[in-house]
Amino acid sequence: MRQCGWAVAAGVIVLMLVGWAGPAMAGPQMRVAYAAVSSIFAGVWLAHDLGYIERHGLKAQLIYISSGGTAAQALIGGDLEMSIGASNAVISAQLGGAPIIAIGSVNSKPAMSLYVRRERTDIARVEDLRGKTLGITRFGSSTDFVSTLLFRKYGIERQVKVLALGGVPEMHAGLQQGKIDAMITSPPVGPFARHVINLADMGVAFSMDYMAVTRDYLRRSPDTVERFFKGYIEGIAALRQRKEQAIRVIAKYLRSEERAPEGYEYAVTYLARVPRVEPETVYSVLDVLGKGRLPLEQFADNTILDKIEREGFVARIYREGR
Prior knowledge:
This protein is 45% helix and 16% strand. It folds into two domains: 2-109 and 207-320, 3-Layer(aba) Sandwich (D-Maltodextrin-Binding Protein, domain 2), CATH 3.40.190.10; 113-202, Periplasmic binding protein-like II (D-Maltodextrin-Binding Protein, domain 2), CATH 3.40.190.10. The chain contains 14 helices and ten strands. The chain has helices at 2-18, 42-49, 52-55, 68-76, 87-95, 142-154, 168-176, 215-220, 222-241, 243-254, 260-270, 279-288, 303-310, 313-320; strands spanning 29-34, 59-64, 82-86, 100-105, 113-117, 133-136, 161-164, 182-185, 193-198, 209-214. The strands form two sheets. A five-stranded mixed sheet has the order 2-1-3-10-4, with helices on both faces. A five-stranded mixed sheet has the order 7-6-8-5-9. It is an alpha/beta fold. It is globular, with a radius of gyration of 19 Å.
């Protein structure tokens, strides 16, 4: 009952935000949610705005839902065809019996950094967070999960107060206003913040965001999923081959021309050319959740991406320099 209630609530939020008119549109359609205003989603932004998804005969609508967990519930409730959100939220939902499957992954490292308020000279190392307040977006989000990885790595679990502020913009505002002492997020950030450590250097496998669909949708619509992935891969290629266009698109979604170049460099650094789900990204989440190494097929399916790569699509896109 609780799960159904969340699904209905998430569905109402989605429909109020986007006013989807699916039945009136011709051809394959896909409602795709992304879970943060971060250039970790630059691949899908470019694929959509530069027309690559539509080139493959698919009409996609991008929807911002500032929580991977909420997006997963909307997916379960049938209000989305795909969610791109926190890998740990997807796996937690699967462990709870949700009939969803991860079919893609934006990357395989915790592509976030620890930032503190610039004037906080007393926080120079991760260990200095003891007794301080760390901001995250939401409990159950990537920022929440990565903070756990960080605390475990440096032996400061349960020694830092964690405050959930809602979304990335709210977290940045919280740091700027002094509500929190530090935050875990991805660049770009404003001049009010000082970088302390890049969490990708911890040597831990972790996907920032999985692309998830219901198992039934994957069974019924593999062709539609393939169309999406081909458009997405072209979007990732454009990130590297069309820098000026890419920066303009990133600026649009970040709502900041000033921060877009830094967001671009972040995306180029971390986004995978082929968005496969690497097994270790699943196992690292299961390990933190205390679940051991359950069968990979319970959580991920790379079949369609394997087919696309096997048929030479990725090599052709980069060879042709699209």
